[in-house]
Amino acid sequence: MNHRLTSPLALAALFVTSYALPAAAHFQEIIPSADVLPEGGEVTLDLVFTHPFEGGPTMQMERPAEIGVLKGGTKTDLSDKLEEIEKEGKKAWRLTDELAEPGAAVYYVTPQPYWEPAEGKYIVHYAKVVVDSYASGEGWDAMVGLPVEIKPLSRPTGLWTGNVFSGVVTKGVRDQRPWAI
After folding, report:
1. What is the pLDDT of residue 174?
2. Quick check: 88 and 58 in contact, CB under 8 A?
């Protein structure tokens, strides 16, 4: 019997399962005050650069290069709504937005590049989060057009503890081929 792995999918699955340990890494977070607003209204989002799987520490975050929202197919720049806040003695950011119509609001951020000495290069952590206004269940799969972005395959606002989110990492909106699993 031949036990050789020949399928790229099998190799990717092997890679993913062999590294299924808690991540000791830092990430850009966008944390909304609510994932679903049953009656619309105001949502507050905190933008924090931290080690989420370790519960911290929070790291210094410079003013984002871009912050916005995609609603109903229209992108809106929200940089004028940013306010500087402090998290664990480090600079972070907050914005408040009004969701007056039903549908998903996909908030996204392009932070300033930061130098990663361990890798010897600058890194940008693109991030996005979906907030569903009026619990519509629509528009959650809209793509913002970031250079690297997750295309959700399951509704991110319809999950509860113990569920599994699934998505495909894509390279830009013009090139929808998955390049990572």
Report:
1. 46
2. yes
- Token readout for 30 is 């966008």
Q: Which tokens hold the place of 131?
A: 């907030």
Residue at token pair 């003013």: 63
Q: Which amino acid is at 22?
A: P
Show the domain range for 116: 24-145
pLDDT digits (tens, 9 = 90+) for 141-167: 999 999 999 999 989 887 778 888 899
Residue 9 in domain: no
Rounded Cα gap, residues 165 and 111, in angstroms: 24
- pTM, entire model: 0.78
Structure-token match 């113990």, residue found: 162
**How many independent structural domains does the chain possess?**
1
Residue with tokens 């269940």: 137
